[in-house]
Amino acid sequence: MEKKPFVTKEKLEEIAAKYPTPFHLYDEKGIRENARRMNKAFSWNKGFREYFAVKATPNPVLMKLLKEEGCGVDCSSYTELMLSDACGFHGHDIMFSSNDTPPEDFRLAKQLGVIINLDDLTHVDFLNEVAGIPETICCRYNPGGVFKTANGIMDNPGDAKYGMTYDQMEEAYRKLMKLGAKRFGIHAFLASNTQTDEYYPELARILFQLAVRLRDETGADIRFVNLSGGVGIPYTPEGEPVDILKVGEGVRKAFEEVLVPAGMENVAIFTELGRFMLGPYGCLVTRAVHEKHTYKDYIGVDACAANLMRPAMYGAYHHITVMGKENAPCDHKYDVTGGLCENNDKFAIDRMLPKIDIGDLLVLHDTGAHGFSMGYNYNGKLRSAEILLKEDGSFELIRRAETPADYFATLDFLHLFG
Ligand SMILES: *Cc1c(COP(=O)(O)O)cnc(C)c1O
């Protein structure tokens, strides 16, 4: 499938005239339509809720937009809890799926009355000591081994640091009941950025069977199953998007085959998607500022890995559109680079693109999740602005770009900078 930006060149030039590149741009229309499809896919389940994974895109305007579409949020740190609370998410609107959790994070989670998801058996006593056990609580499961579907191996949970073994789940539930917990949930995240309609249904079947077994063995009152994140998006033009309506139907089938016969038809399905909710509805907009011809041909842009880490970190592919040259032949082979003093600061390597001229606007696709949020300040690079393209075609600054004063703010006590 051809990848087309959700914004025109004219609109981008208009935005860039007001807010200089680089910036991350988000598409309100795409976000809302996708969230509605997601909710429709699971509307058969009475208690269904998507808890958007805040770490993917921690911007309050986008979080509130998802809130309007009925979503809750999934947090894993103190500041994500603060941000979510400030955005109007309260109590069970928030899942707290953390790991290696500091005591103050558990204390805030307990104080806010959110649903705490325990990553380990030892966290039962730890939480009890630092904050107390809430009446509703969740435990994270890790089945070990490799996670396979009919189409092959998806991921390797046995190597992942998350979650508890079956025996630990059982012991955690028993302990939690003794300490006053009354309502339980099960959570697992077994594979990341999956590209098939089978991931959620297969995972759901495992967790539904686990729910029945845990209820039978411990007598726990299991109220929800959280399928967590991991539904992927196609980053390449060849990739096919997941059909979320089919995914919802697949989960329904497992639900009807496993939970309904066990008398557990009131169990709610939760999800914690990040990438699927926002990934395709954001892009990084940058301008070509230099070209260089040595042993290879380089285009230097005004963004760098500090604005989008995935290519440098994972070798991840992000499609690039040179605005205004959509129909030009891709007859130039470029490395598209940022300015970090690190040779892995390349958004593309040996990419066939149209001839790029200085000043051209480049759109890096699918940066709406795990894009801006993975940014950092290496080499003293400053974080960019975030801008929302609204449904009516207007645009709004939803995070200003950092200034040197922001970068130096943590050194203020030295009184070096006036
Ligand atoms: C990162 C994360 C998610 C979201 O993952 P995506 O791949 O963006 O869907 C959900 N839940 C937990 C606990 C996570 O750590």
From TrEMBL:
Residue numbers carrying N6-(pyridoxal phosphate)lysine: K55
Coiled-coil annotated spans: none
GO MF term set: diaminopimelate decarboxylase activity
Domain Orn/DAP/Arg decarboxylase 2 N-terminal residues, every copy: 31-277
Active-site residues annotated for this sequence: C341 (proton donor)
Cofactor(s) named in the record: pyridoxal 5'-phosphate
Protein name according to UniProt: Diaminopimelate decarboxylase
Species the sequence originates in: Christensenella massiliensis
UniProt lineage: Bacteria, Bacillati, Bacillota, Clostridia, Christensenellales
